[in-house]
Specification:
This protein is of the alpha/beta class. The chain is built from 21 helices and 15 strands. It has four domains: about 90 residues, Arginyl tRNA synthetase N-terminal domain (Gyrase A, domain 2); about 160 residues, 3-Layer(aba) Sandwich (Rossmann fold); about 80 residues, no CATH class; about 120 residues, Isoleucyl-tRNA Synthetase, Domain 1, CATH 1.10.730. The protein has a five-stranded parallel sheet, with helices on both faces. The chain starts with 11 loop residues before the first helix and ends in a 14-residue tail after the last helix. It binds one RNA strand through helix 2, strand 9, strand 10, helix 12 and strand 15.
RNA sequence: GCGCCCGUAGCUCAGCUGGAUAGAGCGCUGCCCUCCGAAGGCAGAGGCCGGGGGUUCGAAUCCCUCCGGGCGCGCCA
């Protein structure tokens, strides 16, 4: 009587393909119409089954009858009257015009099997040979990294890891804006600090960079050079102090980035783009294309031809290139060497998007460049706003945040919200070891699994992990967890396709919640051996998925949570 | 003035190419540790999805318009 003894059940994905086909066939046979826009999706409400489809709505007009009626008929024709399809489905219902299906648990069990077999690689896709250049986080080399860069770093790094998992060849890059006037400002600020060591009354430039972070660099220079530059002309010390300041600050930024668990394939110096002639080459290319003109001594790019609201200056009338000019060259380089170029910019760059897109079009790579904006971050501590003002020198460095909340919490909080949404970051919340804190919730899920698995018999666990003892898994909370595991690869793809890393953070929370619910309802180390082996397998598979998701997010997956003294 | 983003539960936010009675966390109320980690679970209260039009079988989602908040509109970077 049991229909599933010999044949291996298909995975949910395979089952859906089959069901989709028979439904279409049945629709054609019965109504003589093809069905447009069929979707299969997991309904929000569990009582509507695992999978719902809206075919009947698309057919209503051609069939001249009510969706509910059509759904009913299709269930008969496509499912109930075909034993091989009926075997995949435990329940098929027409409600409100939808066809709601519950797949056989055996289909979902195939997912557990796969997650166990693939382990740390579960969710990964085969290499597809597509090269992606991803730029994010870039900052001026004039100070330490601050909060908003933390968000860009977190989002960018998660995107990069998601792209990698989806089979893309990702190349991460950071551009060091070391070519413009701000490096001279840096040089003057640094020089003033250097002089102040010997002469505290030495004036600090009005537009200089305040803050203490230049003091150690100045001290090092004083240590190295003594008074050698005290009475020299600016033309002598300016380039030196600029370069030294840049080098020291970039090195500091790199340390912070590394501490944050992030790696870059390229730190591109803007100055170097000028020195190696790349900037000239980019401008030259635009000129060849007939997209530049001169006006009042300046060289313009015809940006308006590509949707921008005004033409943009490339070379100023004093002969110096603009910042945009260097970006022209840089993007020309990137567009040539990658199949797709993505820039993740800060909130003050809205006005820059059209200009960059226009460039891609101008160079003949329309549509290959995507620009995303990471919205601003406001900080609070226990509900109290934390003041941040660059002018007043009240900067909150990323390092200070990492000191306060730790890398895991910072990575998670920064990536938790949609990139477009401004982030209100409560530092106190992020450090709380309470259930208010989503990071701990997710990590606790992982640790809790680890703890159960430690309690299990080692030999039984080994057997369970072969994925051959899954048959008993059928409880609602077990199905829910298996469904979630099945979702993971698609979540990764949607993160990559829509540049939305927050979906992964959300997924991590969701699968942790599904596990906690399962844990509450089903005792894993139960008395009955078959059930125990099945649940150990499910717990183990869940642990892999949770660990994989956390790895992409750059958050640790601990084997146990350290309990601090709780009050 | 123009452009971009945001407006969804008391708070912080999800809601994927339009789908069913709009979800989650926190906070609030009440339960659950003789049992694998209670940093957990279960149940409950709480919402004209900023307002108004339109498109359609069906709109938080798409279009128009208005209101409210943030940001950007340099021969700065």
């Amino acid at each position: 009587m049991n229909p599933i003894t010999t044949d291996r059940m298909p995975t949910p994905e395979e089952a859906l393909v089959r069901i989709d086909r028979v439904i279409r066939d049945a629709a054609r046979a019965r109504y003589g119409a093809d069905v447009p826009n069929v979707t299969f999706e997991a309904p929000r409400r569990p009582e509507f089954g695992d999978i719902a489809t809206n075919v009947a709505f698309g057919l209503a007009k051609a069939a001249r009858s009510a969706p509910q009626q059509i759904a009913q008929t299709l269930i008969e024709d496509a499912i109930l009257s075909r034993p091989e399809i009926a075997a995949l489905v435990v329940e098929a219902q027409a409600t409100a015009g939808f066809i709601n299906l519950r797949l056989a648990p055996q289909c979902w069990q195939r997912v557990v099997e796969r997650a166990l077999h693939e382990g740390a690689r579960y969710g990964e896709f085969p290499r597809n040979g597509t090269r992606i250049s991803l730029e994010f986080g870039s900052a001026n080399p004039t100070g330490p990294l601050v909060v908003v860069q933390g968000r860009a770093l977190s989002i960018g790094a998660t995107l990069a890891a998601a792209f990698d998992a989806c089979g893309y060849d990702v190349f991460t890059e950071w551009i060091v804006n070391d070519a413009g006037g701000q490096v001279e400002t840096l040089a003057r600020s640094l020089y003033a600090r250097y002089r102040q060591i010997a002469d505290p009354s030495f004036p600090f430039p009005e537009e200089g960079y305040p803050g203490d972070y230049l003091l150690p660099i100045a001290a090092a220079l004083r240590n190295e050079f003594g008074a050698r530059y005290d009475d020299t002309d600016e033309s002598i010390w300016l380039p030196l102090f600029g370069t030294r300041g840049r080098d020291a600050l970039v090195a500091e930024q790199q340390r912070t980035v590394e501490r944050f668990g992030i790696h870059y394939d390229l730190w591109q110096s803007e100055r170097e783009l000028h020195e190696t002639g790349k900037v000239r080459a980019g401008v030259e290319r635009l000129r060849e294309l007939g997209l530049t003109y001169e006006n009042e001594g300046a060289l313009y790019f015809r940006a308006t031809q590509f949707g921008d609201d005004k033409d943009r200056v490339l070379v100023k009338s004093d002969g110096k290139p603009t910042y945009y000019c260097a970006d022209v060259a840089y993007h020309y380089e990137k567009l040539k060497r990658a199949d797709r170029v993505i820039d993740l910019l800060g909130p003050d760059h809205h006005g820059y998007i059209e200009r960059l897109r226009g460039l891609a079009s101008a160079f003949g790579y329309a549509g290959k460049l995507d620009v995303a904006i990471a919205q601003q971050v406001t900080l609070s501590r226990g509900g109290e706003q934390v003041a941040m003002s660059k002018r007043a020198g009240e900067i909150v460095t990323l390092d200070a945040i990492l000191d306060e909340v730790g890398v895991d919490a910072a990575r998670f909080f920064f990536a938790m919200l949609a990139t477009d949404t401004p982030l209100a970051f409560d530092l106190q919340l992020a450090t709380e070891q309470s259930n208010e804190n989503p990071v701990y919730y997710v990590q606790y899920g992982h640790a809790r699994i680890a703890s159960v698995l430690r309690n299990a018999d080692a030999e039984e666990l080994r057997i369970a992990r072969r994925g051959e003892t899954l048959a008993p898994l059928a409880h609602a909370s077990e199905i829910a967890l298996m469904r979630r595991i099945e979702e993971y690869p698609r979540v990764l793809q949607s993160v990559a396709n829509t540049l939305s890393p927050h979906r992964l953070a959300r997924f991590a929370r969701d699968i942790a919640a599904d596990f906690h619910a399962f844990y509450g309802e089903c005792r894993i180390l139960c008395d009955e051996r078959d059930e125990r082996l099945a649940r150990l397998a499910l717990a183990s598979a869940t642990q892999h998925v949770l660990a994989n998701a956390l790895r992409v997010l750059g958050v640790g997956a601990p084997e146990s949570m350290e309990r601090l003294a709780s009050s």
